[in-house]
């Protein structure tokens, strides 16, 4: 048996159906706000992520799927999409001092320890809003993150979700160096207590110590200096204005002084969105502003940007856990059309072909609500056995008896009721499927 690689998934029905529906819901919502789909390659040059996400980030240091192609080029399976989107905007010369809005959905790859909701190949979706330096863009991104999730949960009948936005500002190139210096001066006192990773971070990127999951590091961080106390006037105004808009819009946020997010390209606003349901807290998405990212990729460009990214697998698990009727909500009515044939009358097949043709003709009335299956069986008994195994709702069948009496039968397999219809009407059954099944 050749099994799939560790940390990967096969998405089979029903899960694949749910995923498809979520993806459709995401794009439906985002298009209304002017975001259009962008697709970038699954592999990119390694430099892209080293320069943008940062050489000292966990993603670049530990988690990238790197490989050389046959010409010896250093490539990587993309670990995230923001850098790729900005690379695509520069390369395709899309930027012209205008606002650009994109959404993406696709696989990302990270070599990390697989756990529930976290895989080595995962599906990420998100939006990027480029070209707007104003706090209004940050507001739009945070507003859309929360409300997109709200829209999705409503679509899948999950009610009473409480959202929590964790938010912080990590400043800009003017004010961040002072803050980093203060952080360094604070953490150097605890150097020997910090985990090994953080001891390295002290010199490479001290901000990341605030991100560490290690309990000792977390405890040391509790009294660390806060970035908002060191913001320059412009960063402070930007952040204050954003928080005012959020408050005016009744978006519930928590000022999280030690939220930094582990990527080099963020500046000013960083945020994370969590959902609370039945006392469980679930991380949904994270994002922020990245005004220097374009410049990291190509020094002749300066393009403001902000965005968010969230995981599809985590969302799917969440919806599956909290909507027990989800299968029913997404399941079409299954209809099995059966010809019971024992080599007596070859003419009987014309009814089968007739139904095939009519399903095709009325596809617009049927789509997403009905699924048709076709079979040729030697007896009604074997047809029913098959229908049972396939969880069929209705079986429509024609056999020798029916031909003789010029009828066809419709049987509701959920309640056992059966009704006879004139075979002359066979051409109309798909067109009037709703009436036909209503007996
Ligand atoms: Zn600043
Ligand atoms: Zn640590």
Set down the secondary structure blueprint.
Blueprint: H1 15-32, E1 36-37, E2 43-45, H2 46-52, H3 58-63, E3 65-68, E4 74-77, H4 82-91, E5 100-109, E6 121-130, H5 135-155, E7 162-169, H6 176-187, H7 196-204, H8 215-221, H9 233-248, E8 253-255, E9 267-277, E10 280-289, H10 293-297, E11 305-311, H11 312-322, H12 326-330, E12 333-340, H13 349-361, H14 363-366, E13 370-377, H15 380-389, E14 394-398, H16 400-405, E15 407-412, E16 418-422, H17 433-437
Parallel strand pairs: 1-5, 7-8, 12-13, 12-14
Antiparallel strand pairs: 2-4, 3-4, 5-6, 6-11, 7-9, 9-10, 10-11, 14-15, 15-16
One zinc ion (ZN) is lined by residues 171-172, 174-175, 231-232, 234-235.
Describe this structure as you would to a colleague.
The chain has 439 residues and is α+β, with helices and mostly antiparallel strands. It has two domains: 15-175 and 231-322, Bira Bifunctional Protein, Domain 2 (BirA Bifunctional Protein, domain 2, 2-Layer Sandwich), CATH 3.30.930; 332-437, Anticodon-binding domain (Rossmann fold), CATH 3.40.50.800. The chain has 17 helices and 16 strands. It has an eight-stranded mixed beta sheet with strand order 1-5-6-11-10-9-7-8, sandwiched between helices. Strands 13-12-14-15-16 form a five-stranded mixed beta sheet. It is elongated and about 95 Å long. The relative contact order is 0.11. The model has no long low-confidence stretch (mean pLDDT 93). It binds zinc ion (2 copies). The site of one zinc ion has 7 residues, from helix 7. One zinc ion (ZN) binds next to helix 9.
